[in-house]
Specification:
Layout (H helix, E strand, L loop, with lengths): L1 H5 L10 H10 L2 H20 L9 H33 L1 H6 L2 H4 L2 H9 L5 H8 L6 H20 L4 H24 L5 H28 L4 H35 L16
Length: 269
């Protein structure tokens, strides 16, 4: 009963999943147009907000992150056990090299389409006048393009990528929701999330390389995925170094006094 609810089997009589997959395949222009509109909108709002006070948006941000965390949690509970069952029955290479498990799992389609509303993350950043880094909007655009490309071609590795991303997003959006609510975390929590993101990208590279060697289909999608994941590893590693390693080194090198650890020691006259 629980599996039927989580895996959305009860929707099979109402939602034409196969038709939706075909529609995605027939409209490759949609993610391109959405990406252009997204970038134009983000930077237009960022420019318009230069001389305006930042919006607080605490409640909308909290609700948005809770919604994405719950969506990711249910997606994780559906995709991870689904992959485990297929691997136990047919083996890991079969699951990675065929679209059978993905075609029977509506969460793969929902996962790919969820990359569209996730673009709203960036609008919260620019409306609240928070720093917008290249990695953020690059990641959103490329992931949307890749997921749409994979859905259109019925890429066999989609279930694995979806499962990894949904698990990480469950933790990430739960963390963002807690922060929006007012909970404060130490550096170790943020560092752990970034580490998990890097691990996800490394596993993504391993899966793509495996499929390039073991599978006889879709080299275009695999190459797209390889380039995407390598670029993510580079950018997320740079983020990790800039955010944690360099800052930790600066704090270590900065002389302090016992009375006020935030104040530099003055030289003796």
């Amino acid at each position: 009963m629980w599996e039927d609810v989580v895996e959305l089997r009860w929707l099979e009589h109402y939602v034409p999943w196969r038709t939706a997959h075909l529609w995605v395949a027939d409209h490759p222009e949609v993610p391109v147009l959405l990406s252009v509109a997204y970038l134009v909108g983000v930077f237009s709002i960022k420019h318009a907000m230069r001389d305006r006070p930042a919006f607080e948006l605490k409640t909308p941000l909290l609700l948005w992150n809770v919604l994405l965390a719950v969506f990711s949690l249910f997606g994780s509970l559906a995709t991870v056990p689904h992959i485990i069952r297929v691997v136990r029955q047919h083996g890991i290479t079969y699951d990675m090299c065929t679209f059978d498990s993905e075609s029977m799992n509506p969460w793969i389609l929902l996962f790919g389409l969820s990359k569209i509303p996730e673009l709203l993350d960036t609008f919260f950043i620019v409306l609240r006048k928070r720093p917008l880094i290249f990695l953020h909007y690059y990641h959103h655009v490329v992931t949307l393009l890749y997921c749409w490309h994979g859905l259109g071609l019925q890429a066999p590795n989609g279930g694995w990528f979806a499962a990894m991303n949904l698990v990480i997003h469950t933790l990430m959006y739960a963390y963002y929701a807690a922060c929006a609510y007012g909970v404060r975390f130490g550096v170790a929590t943020r560092q752990s999330i970034t580490t998990l993101q890097i691990l996800q990208m490394v596993l993504g590279i391993a899966i793509v390389v495996h499929n390039l060697v073991a599978c006889n289909t879709l080299p275009t999608n695999y190459i797209f995925g390889l380039v995407m994941y390598v670029s993510y590893v580079v950018l997320f590693t740079k983020l990790y170094i800039d955010s944690y390693v360099k800052k930790a080194n600066r704090r270590t090198k900065q002389p302090t006094t016992a009375a006020d650890p935030t104040r530099k020691t003055k030289k003796a006259d």
